[in-house]
Each structure stands twice: as C-alpha cells, then as structure tokens.
Write a structure and sequence with these properties.
By secondary structure, the protein is α/β, with parallel strands linked by helices. It has helices at 39-48, 63-66, 74-88, 147-173, 181-186, 190-209, 286-289; strands at residues 22-27, 53-56, 92-95, 111-112, 115-117, 121-124, 130-133, 214-217, 224-228, 231-235, 244-249, 254-258, 263-266. The two termini are 31 Å apart. It comes from Cobetia amphilecti.
C-alpha cells in the first residue's frame, strides 16, 4: 500500500481471502465528529471480527474539527456504542490519543468504561514480536518537507475529502462499493510520498532505538508494511479514506484488512524477534516521552 521509493519493499506472501480468529485489532484515524468518518463501514467490520484486544491508535475523535462543526450522526453514535459493548464483554480496549484528540492525553493512565487510555504501548504478538504502538504525530518533527507545502497539503486534503464524499454518494446510488478518490490522488503526489517515506523511516528508527521488532501506528492515512534492517513498519490506515485496519491472527501473523475483513496484504513472517534490551535512559526520545 505504501509507495515510498527510498527503500525496497519486502516481498509479501500470497494472502488468503478472509481472516479467521483475530487476536488483536489495530484501528486509527476514525475522525468521529466529522462528515468524512466512515462509521458504518467500521461498525460492519467490528460485527465480522471479535478481537481479544483492540487498540484505538489515535484520532478516533476529531476534537479539532469539532471546534468548528460537530457531526455525530446515528452511525457514529452506534459505532461508539459497539466499541463500549466490546469493552464490557471482555475485549481489552486500549485508547492511544493522537494529535486530533490530544486533549485526551491528560487522561493517560486512567481506565474509563473499561477502556484504558495510554500515551503509547508495547504490544507482544503471539509469535513473540515486540511492537511499539503509537499514533505517530510525534514523528512529524523528523519529516523534512517545507512547512508551506504541508499547510497547502492539509488544505487540499480537506477539499479532496469533500469530493470523496460526493463521489461515494454517487457510487452508492449505482450500487458500487466504496472507493477512495483521496487515496488515488495521493499516490500520484511526489511530495506526499516523500513525506510518507520520511515518516516511515522515523518510526522504524525509534523502534530500532528501543530494541523492538517493529512499529504500529496511523496518522498519515496510508496503510501498509515496510521492512528495513530487520525492523517491521506497520500502518493500519484510516476510516475516512482507505477504511483499513491491522489484524493479528491466532498465530501472531499481521494482516492489513478492509472493512469486510478481507486480507489486502500480509506482513513478512520470517523476521526473528529481537532480544529485549536492558533499560537505558536514552531508549526513549523526548518526543516519545512527552505526555
């Protein structure tokens, strides 16, 4: 899914058509409170899969957008209710706030309605991999793109998302499935792909610094896998453009899935877990240590 040109991608094995038992599900960038949130599609996924653990990896609620205009329709309300039912029914739910819901970071360390709020997490897969989990906005300071280009990109992104809504309303009238216009346009943008590549490198560098096997995050709305120097990068995508999630199966394998639970891509399985390092004061950067 990602299109970085700075390093070769690992070859992915053929993926099965659908996912079986789900040990862990990672979801980010839902942007509840906005008209772009694809709450109905995410709710369909949560009806199809029943994870033992659910990570909500930031920007679940778009508090920034809600300052100007709040949209919380019946589909979004039903999605919130479904997540809370999962938490009550025994699914371990961990909420890691992002930059659009950063106000919730003051709640880190608390448990609300059976949902644990954390700044970051270390997830151990069934196969023994240790993965850093964070939203990813802390890596923006490592991306060397002109600020005016990023600002222009943000404005264009909002406009494209509005076109995306109208496009998919028209497709729905003709019985066509969801399709991301925003994603198709971003794949053709060299600036966007340079940003993605630098973001991925920063995330893998942080995982490597901490002696971990990989990284899981969101933030950039571009799902996919990448491997570099034995470190696995995973991005679970979003629920305003791509409608994807990251799922760990019963054996610890990681898959990128769509809203129907269909596997789009599978992470390489041959990487060996790294030994856990001794704790050192330099293991965490100031960006990662911040509340």
């Amino acid at each position: 899914m990602t299109a970085s040109q700075s390093a070769p991608r690992a070859e992915m094995p053929p993926a099965p058509d659908a996912l079986g038992q789900v040990r862990t599900l990672f979801i980010s960038d839902v942007h509840l409170g906005t008209p772009d949130c694809q709450a109905a599609l995410l709710a369909k996924l949560l009806r199809r899969v029943r994870p033992e653990r659910l990570y909500l990896v930031g920007d679940i609620v778009d508090l920034l957008a809600m300052r100007k205009r709040a949209v919380l329709d019946k589909d979004q309300q039903a999605l919130v209710a479904r997540v809370l039912r999962l938490a009550r029914s025994g699914c371990e739910v961990i909420y890691i706030p992002g930059n659009h819901d950063a106000a919730f970071r003051r709640l880190c360390g608390l448990k609300l309605h059976n949902v644990s709020v954390e700044r970051r997490a270390i997830h151990t897969t069934g196969s023994g991999r240790r993965l850093l989990v964070s939203h990813g906005d802390e890596f923006d300071t490592h991306v060397r793109i002109a600020p005016w280009l990023l600002k222009l990109g943000d404005g264009m992104h909002g406009f494209i998302l509005s076109l995306n809504r109208w496009c998919n309303r028209a497709r729905g009238i003709f019985g066509l499935p969801y399709w991301s216009l925003a994603s198709a346009l971003k794949r053709r943008s060299g600036t966007a792909q340079r940003y993605v590549a630098q973001f991925e490198e920063a995330a893998m560098r942080q995982a490597r610094l901490e002696g971990l096997d990989g990284y899981v995050g969101g933030h950039i709305h571009q799902a996919g896998f990448r491997v570099e120097e034995g470190v696995l990068y995973c991005n679970d995508g979003d629920w305003v453009e791509h409608c994807t999630a990251l799922a760990e199966d019963a054996e610890g394998a990681l898959h990128l899935i769509d809203w129907q639970g269909q596997i789009l891509e599978t992470a390489p399985r041959h990487l060996m877990p790294r030994p856990a390092p001794a704790a050192t004061p330099d293991a965490v950067t100031p960006e990662m240590a911040g509340a």
